[in-house]
Amino acid sequence: FEQAMGGFHGRFRFNFNAADDNLEGRVKYEEFAKYAMQLVKVFGETRCRVAAQRVLGSRRAEARKKVKNIFVFDGYDPQASHRLMDICSKGHKNSSLVEDVRSALAANADPNAALASPAFNGYTPLIFLAMAQLCANGAQIAKAMETLIAAGADVHRECGQMPMGRLVPLRFAARAQNMDGLAALQKHIDVGDTFQWAAGENAVEIMLGVLR
What we know:
Blueprint: H1 16-19, H2 29-43, H3 45-56, E1 64-67, E2 70-73, H4 78-89, H5 97-106, E3 114-115, H6 125-130, H7 138-150, H8 169-175, H9 179-186, H10 194-201, H11 204-211
Antiparallel strand pairs: 1-2, 2-3
């Protein structure tokens, strides 16, 4: 779990005796749930949740099904979800992008649908929009992302395992130098020191923006 968290860096250390309130030599579910809250206080709920998913593989137990080449959560319409995925994958050249995204969501498309494809493993509508290169359609891209997020799209949801790792939409946007997409996502994610984060992602335009 510590490895999945990216290391504790001296901020936390597991202590079995501290977790074993009753000193029974075993930790009950209730005791560990209480102890785990200390981790949440130190690192935040989102980081702990993502680490737990990596360790336990909880995404395999998610209530979703594979329909053709995408995974869709229960309760959503597969056909509308396919349409939403197609719309977002071509968002950089769609002048009616926001309207089309809203139409698909109104038809009960899953905002967290994910591609079941080795080439785009686990890519979501939000990730496809984040991947858009700098283009004249930037304002539409940003507004479409806000529309997805308002509908429940998870800004912390990573893609599946790929050669470059498992990346969240923000990192896809940074790699693509998608400034409009980055601005939209940063409203919902705290990256801390923006310049240092941008330097780590080689997001030159963001670094220059901070310096201006």
